[in-house]
User: Fold these one by one.
Assistant:
Number 1:
Amino acid sequence: MNLAKVLGTVVSTQKEESLKGLKFLLLGQVDTNGALTGGIVVAADAVGAGVGEMVMYATGSSARQTRFTDKRPCDAVVMGIVDSWEIEGEELYKKGERE
Amino acid sequence: MNLAKVLGTVVSTQKEESLKGLKFLLLGQVDTNGALTGGIVVAADAVGAGVGEMVMYATGSSARQTRFTDKRPCDAVVMGIVDSWEIEGEELYKKGERE
Amino acid sequence: MNLAKVLGTVVSTQKEESLKGLKFLLLGQVDTNGALTGGIVVAADAVGAGVGEMVMYATGSSARQTRFTDKRPCDAVVMGIVDSWEIEGEELYKKGERE
Amino acid sequence: MNLAKVLGTVVSTQKEESLKGLKFLLLGQVDTNGALTGGIVVAADAVGAGVGEMVMYATGSSARQTRFTDKRPCDAVVMGIVDSWEIEGEELYKKGERE
Amino acid sequence: MNLAKVLGTVVSTQKEESLKGLKFLLLGQVDTNGALTGGIVVAADAVGAGVGEMVMYATGSSARQTRFTDKRPCDAVVMGIVDSWEIEGEELYKKGERE
């Protein structure tokens, strides 16, 4: 999975039938400090993530295997809202402090 | 999925049997402002997207699971025409205004 | 899929049993003008493409689903010989004119 | 697979149901000298790797096929703790000496 | 598939059960001249490749479909030892001459 920040939402009315009902989030990939690296991805939301939150998302066939995306042709899904991460014992990100 | 702009079309007469009948679009990847980043991809069209429209496309095995591409050896498919996207409440792209 | 130019061929005598009989082409990825970008890939040939031709190739599990590669452990296959592509109505590549 | 160093851990309470119970490690990709290249990935741990250890991790559908991740929607898993690697007979990394 | 040079070997004692018995090679990706590009990958060996040889390797789900890796969670496998490759009729690599 990759770390990303939820930047916002993408609206698409005319879309593949089987994707209807899913919410699509615009994610910005981040580095270990939580800074945006420039890479973006559009991911379905499996956990109710909000704008500004740090998340981890999966790509590829795993993206079709959550409760929300089961058998739907998704290739990227937000799998979890990140509370914190630490590197060698130092907490580099903690939700609520660095968003 | 990724965001892209439909740049044009690709014509291929001599192709794998199972791809016949599909329309292939030439897509240019875009950043959050809708500006082209230089990356391109050839994707089958599952939604009737037109040149100049912003779309979201999926890659990998999900690309074989739309109505149009079911079980065909596609690895990239346009899944939706994008109406708009917003970042932290600001609309950065809206169809008809920034194409 | 991606656009590429057929640069040449790769010969491998000692190879995985199930790949025997396939022809392997060395492809160079191209940009929208048909210029090489530096990226290369070795792909099985499903359409009889020749050196110098522009092609589109697929990667991943779709590469195992053509007549020639069915169930063989391929991860890249030339799916079609490209006749032409156009961007916003302008033909940027036409076979026989820009090779 | 890729070589990486275990940088730390990622905590996510609100996550896809089927991922519960897995430990997520923050990995930093390394070059042949074991130096960090800047790329990061969040991987489930199938082998009990600790912070500072060099590991090899797999991505894609293989990540759902270990004892710990069987059928769970993972796209990256630590598959082994690396003891050493050598290039043309020279040992460039040995566990315990270069961490 | 991609072209790479076998740089050396990776030793991992503590690893996912189902990977035991496989030999892991450290590969360096090469360009059309056979020069290293800096990219590396750890691949299982399906053909008995030796250090210094040029090989082609596959990634993704195809990597689980050779005699040696059948159903094992591999994501990269050396599929063939390369004898030679040529570009537009010129032989840019021939085994035994440029290693």
Number 2:
Amino acid sequence: MRNRQRQSSREASLSRRAALGMAAAGAAGLTTLPAVSQAAATGARTVDVVIVGAGFAGLTAARQLRAAGRSVVVLEADDRVGGRTKAGTVAGETVDLGGQWVGPAQTRLLALAKEFGVATYPQYDKGQNLIDIAGHRAAYEGETPALDPAAMGEFAEVIGKIETLSAATSMPRPWEGAAAAEQDAQTIESWLLLNAKSPAVRSAIRLLVRAVFSAETSQISLLYFLAYASAGGGFSALIATRGGAQDSLFDGGVWQLAARMAKDLGAAVVLNAKVESIAQDGTGVTVTTNTGAWRGRYGVVTAPPALASRIDYTPALPARRDGLTQRMPLGCVIKTHIAYSRPFWREQGLTGLVLSDRTEFGPWFDHSPRHGTTGSLVGFFDGGPAQRWADQPPEARRDRVLKDIAQYFGDAALSPIDYVEEVWTRTPLHRGGYVSVPGPGVLTAFGPALLEPVGRIHWAGTETAEAWAGYIDGAVRSGERVAEVVGALL
Amino acid sequence: MRNRQRQSSREASLSRRAALGMAAAGAAGLTTLPAVSQAAATGARTVDVVIVGAGFAGLTAARQLRAAGRSVVVLEADDRVGGRTKAGTVAGETVDLGGQWVGPAQTRLLALAKEFGVATYPQYDKGQNLIDIAGHRAAYEGETPALDPAAMGEFAEVIGKIETLSAATSMPRPWEGAAAAEQDAQTIESWLLLNAKSPAVRSAIRLLVRAVFSAETSQISLLYFLAYASAGGGFSALIATRGGAQDSLFDGGVWQLAARMAKDLGAAVVLNAKVESIAQDGTGVTVTTNTGAWRGRYGVVTAPPALASRIDYTPALPARRDGLTQRMPLGCVIKTHIAYSRPFWREQGLTGLVLSDRTEFGPWFDHSPRHGTTGSLVGFFDGGPAQRWADQPPEARRDRVLKDIAQYFGDAALSPIDYVEEVWTRTPLHRGGYVSVPGPGVLTAFGPALLEPVGRIHWAGTETAEAWAGYIDGAVRSGERVAEVVGALL
């Protein structure tokens, strides 16, 4: 049924192309259904839509367009799919070196997992979390960080203010809100200094913001912060484990979902094809890579703005779009898995979660395999620490990680059985993560360019999502949206 | 004498290269002194230093290295030299479409002009300036904007505070100052809201900042603002005409100085050569353009960080350098010259300078030819207005400019005899101006990467200058510095 639909739709598409005077090559494809055919005129292979980037956004867009009977190609510079998700191995277990968690409100990602039969399981949280903020060290259960009791009132008040402001953000176009100009003129840090007196509250908010954005409170527009929180159901949802954005994990890793989508797409996904330029004219786009060119009626670029700017566009992009790409840096992040012969912190009654302003590494979480006897932690250098440690030798980073963990879990932490890291912020094809984080004055001046198509080029990627921007779920949503928009134009 | 030195130095250089096992091709060059020779091994032409960008920084570095006997090539993507300076014509007069002014403290630029025999002349300032801020319109003489008298006290106080903070900045490494973290966590705007109550003072500072940086107070780090002002001798010096950064103009245009330097460099300047990649190894750099590759022992990149990031580097740049390039957007600017049959504003007793918060276009200045009877104005869309108008049709911009001028000079402004503009922020090879303007949290985390060489690649350009960063003078200084540093390594 689906095949029949696709085929007839493809025929219609080819007829339209022929009517437009385009090369009707690839008719043979009607029997074998290859996604890519040869265009006699340009030497470029021709499809309906050329998609740049095989992360969750690009793959989702591709499969949805395919399901609607369109021909696509997904061009990926890397030798793998998945974008900001990636498979790795630590102590024989396959783990996520990139995005990994899912929350109950991330319904599009959960639907994708259900479709592929990939189960989720809850993030381990039995026992006590540790916190060490502004000189106050405590163990606690649940979601509310146990600051110095004297600071708890103000902490609740500040979180409350953030939630109120966030809920009032004008979504999905935050720059249109009445308070937008004022909120976009300040950083989270300058707002925090005016709204929190307690050093403990300030330090806690800085750490939580850093963990969510991989950037510092001094670098982030308050408006962007509030809009981002709003797109994820509030700041509390972003920082929470149970019920929040760190609620659950995927059995075997979330990267599998990208791999499964790519498998279904088959030859339509082209790896090791780095897009160098995109030229467009009245009838389509020509996307040139190091391994050849593709021609499509439309193009979809899923790379984050800072990396999309490294493609050469003809004609040149409008000032607003190019200006946006100059002002959307990626956060800085290094992700590390540390495996031990057993999860010894559990024996101490600990969940494994530590939130400290006395370490460079952190936060970290229990990430032990569900079966077997070994134990594992997963954690991050985020923001400033990631920036400082990314250019250090791996041994120095490893030493810092283990010593930081040992401060809280004891010397057993110094003897892992395995260790793996991904320095996203130094990886040439990513140059950061988890997401693009604009400073002040960007959204209000350049925000509309995030989504606004430029002729036949459309933009996707988690940064463009109306819900859960910055998360895998947002990437899926952005892929669905762009497939719908472009599909309607074909 | 200079030729002899150059030759013997070149011989020594070639011997060293041969000793390093490099192809000693280009020996023929010893008799004809071409700047560029052919390296047998790679097919790349070989020089001592490959310089990317033929603006004032690159040209200055090239001539200084040449004078020291080194061989250089300057690769320029555009079909002209001059970078952010450029020649244009309005009503038969040659004018600067980019940088144009010089102040008395800009000694390196003045020295260059003297060397080439290009005279300067004072910016016309006879008569009264017009100001229209926060609903108060006034005419005044001299350098201090005549705000509503009730606001003048606070204006002086705020300027005083800025000068005090600016003078206390830790230069040339502002991120090392005791107040750096705090100052880098806020925008000029959030500082202004706390330090100025009067709407007139706020509006005036916003306009002046916009005119200096081509960016909005909401987009600029307070620390960067203070450091930039410090590098130019204080904020008052930056905004002043007489004695300040807008003191004088060059007879025939400042662009001539770039043209003269390029003429002296001859075949060592290669136009229409867009640098696509830079690869380095233990002995040198290979710089590949759309028209061939060059090999040098060192490379100098003068492009501003946001554009330098669009080059492909092998090995990949360190995280801190790449991170900097994601966080140094160029300001937004459109420059316009409007010629009239006579300078009719002079007949009204006006200098031609108008500073208004009720126009999109502005400020503008008298730029009438020194000889003859025609009159001319030069002005800008800066920051927000430039961003908003860059993607509009030229006719709409022209209409806006003329109507804005007519509000102050009368309907005679609606009938120019000629009109020319340069939309820097839309030009693919520039994408903004006058200078790169980081938001909060950038300098303190990424600042050192502005200058720090990456292996054999050194960075220049006005952004890297210790004095007059953002000005042509700073570009010249950065070229001198990099030539000295790289020269000492050869």
